[in-house]
Design a protein that fits this description.
Layout: H1 2-17, H2 23-50, H3 58-80
Length: 86
């Protein structure tokens, strides 16, 4: 459901910007993106439980969170940059 809402959002934003997109492909990519996030949920929850961002060791835990999430967010930034460019 969330993936569908974000797919519609992505298509509407592209149309407002005047960008021609293939809505089927963009919708599929958006849905895949959210399914991957759903698959990552247990990892994220486990990471938060094992390395909480509270307490006396929060600084090293921030570093661990950053190292684990960096590849994921880099892929998102790369994909987001592809839409809306003319």
């Amino acid at each position: 459901m969330v993936g569908l809402l974000f797919a519609v959002r992505r298509i509407v934003l592209a149309k407002v910007e005047g960008t021609h997109i293939r809505w089927v492909i963009e919708s599929a990519l958006e849905l895949v993106w959210w399914y991957v996030w759903a698959a990552y949920t247990p990892l994220v929850m486990g990471l938060a439980k094992r390395f909480p961002l509270t307490g006396p060791r929060f600084v090293p835990h921030i570093a661990i969170h950053r190292l684990v999430t960096k590849p994921r967010f880099q892929s998102h930034d790369t994909r987001e940059g592809s839409v809306g460019t003319k």
